[in-house]
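worker-03 picked up job from queue 'complexes'. Input manifest follows; two sequence lines, order preserved.
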Amino acid sequence: MSGGVVADPAPPRIRFTDERIEMAHGAGGKASRRLVEGLIAPLFANETLAPLADAAIFPVAACRIATTADAFVVKPLRFAGGSIGELCINGTLNDLAVSGACPRTIMVSLILEAGLETATLRAELEAMAAAAARAGVAIAGGDTKVVEHGACDRMFVTTFGVGVVDERLRLGAQHVRKGDRVLLSGPIGDHGITILLARGELELEADLRSDTRSVWPMVRALLDAVPDGVRWMRDPTRGGVATALNELARDAGCAIALHEDAIPLRSEVRGACEILGLDPLHIANEGQFLAVVAERDAQRALEAVRAVAGGEDAALVGTVQSEPARAVVGITGYGGTRMIDMLVGDPLPRIC
Amino acid sequence: MSGGVVADPAPPRIRFTDERIEMAHGAGGKASRRLVEGLIAPLFANETLAPLADAAIFPVAACRIATTADAFVVKPLRFAGGSIGELCINGTLNDLAVSGACPRTIMVSLILEAGLETATLRAELEAMAAAAARAGVAIAGGDTKVVEHGACDRMFVTTFGVGVVDERLRLGAQHVRKGDRVLLSGPIGDHGITILLARGELELEADLRSDTRSVWPMVRALLDAVPDGVRWMRDPTRGGVATALNELARDAGCAIALHEDAIPLRSEVRGACEILGLDPLHIANEGQFLAVVAERDAQRALEAVRAVAGGEDAALVGTVQSEPARAVVGITGYGGTRMIDMLVGDPLPRIC
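worker-03 finished. Artifact:
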């Protein structure tokens, strides 16, 4: 600071002691600054974070950048195994991961209802910071708006992720070939059924937890093991495995034969789905991914994912065929078949 | 598509004919696909857009990347001179612009209330597409969630922007020097007062329009004219010019002397503020920016901005001083002075 402006620009440390979020915290003035500098910034502290700047800035080498955006409106905010704070970070990491992108930075934008307890907000900010730290990714900034009591349901979070694409990869439905195998990283339906149970509207109880987590460690192991063999990846969130594979079948113009008995599924999820008349293949997951791998690499791919914590139950669950085009066919142990459609309607709203 | 999978993967064209948004449109299944492919994707059509992929991917050379996130909860959705759709694109372009970053891509994430008329959504998507097209920027994707009727107020939008930083620049409060001049691009308060009037809660009428627009053309002209002379930029949105300059004063440890008579201000805004007891310096703007420029470059900077459409009323409105440190001092034509504080409280909630 040459040129005569005062020597010590260090701002005084601000503490946020308000018990509830009020409209003024979203107005952009003093109260906003106290919220951001007194609560959000200290929890997200890292080198990239510029809490009051208009943008976060970071260098990249020449590369392909992947960007992703996700809104989170899950209800309730907290549930067995996680909360909206973990979910919003992990979900964004996972969208990058299945795009073959190493996560580089995350931004978090909040819409808060006036009257929200600060303790609730703090707990979710802590959950975001912890999930980002686990993944070794910085939260680089964001935005905070407050709406009147009743104009939103407690808090919504929208997360934005930027990653650098692994240059070894060529992913996409157009690369899928007949004979390729479908790999699933673990048991399905845990997240969706956990949220359903957390709402307490059903006379059901089960020892079940959301599977929310970053799948990047599993994806990285897969890519390192068979960099040429991975054709397509997707995380089967809303709409479940059935919807993700139907989208693949349609986009690739192929058929997916799904070996239903090979699909990892906890008995609690199976039981809840039977009682509720739901298909586990339509239930949302938050910590699983699907990959299509070349037939020659399938066994190596499976071993690579199984060797990573969380991937122990990975399985080869399907095969790419030419017919029936643009369809997913379930095959049971007795040789029976059924057509598996995308999710229709919304049996489990606000799952993420 | 070698390997035997069917030859023509082209998906059938989908039309979205539902009159209202329902929960199923956010469930991730067939209805979500219809909404995205039948309504959103055709309006946002561009090469980068991958409407159903998990991430958008684009190449960059070695550079510094700027990322920004903004939530928009403006009420009402439409107002004189614009709507939430233009606001969310322009606001994000402007955060990049004042970071010295040429906008590269934008993502748009929607939270919709079940029951929202499709016509309302379509109008806002069209406004987004038009604003992005005007700026020559692609909307690369996003996310859509639907919450129950009553769980949000019609629609909220969160926008993310990625830009490439102009390598000639070194912007930041730490570069500000005593004697530097403060440039303001045009009349203040138009947006905030327009929104206030659009709510119809006041017995006031005025021929006023929001100033929502991209400031990038003005910023680019400024940077081209005096690349070495620009020290700091900010768009004075929530909290207005007073808050932005107080943040600068605090971060730089300097004083800003603000020549109040030099500040461009429409008589309608001045009148409304007098009646309502508001300070125009606290009112939000959506199409203006502030820049601190070196004294030697100030006149050239002013001419460059004035030469761009929308910048005709730009003015040099302040000077950087060393004392009183971390404060903004207003100076009137009669030589009187007053301390100008940041915004306190929220006189105009949900302005953007």
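worker-03 released lock.
Chain B has two domains: 23-165, 173-340.
Chain B is about 30% helix and 25% strand.
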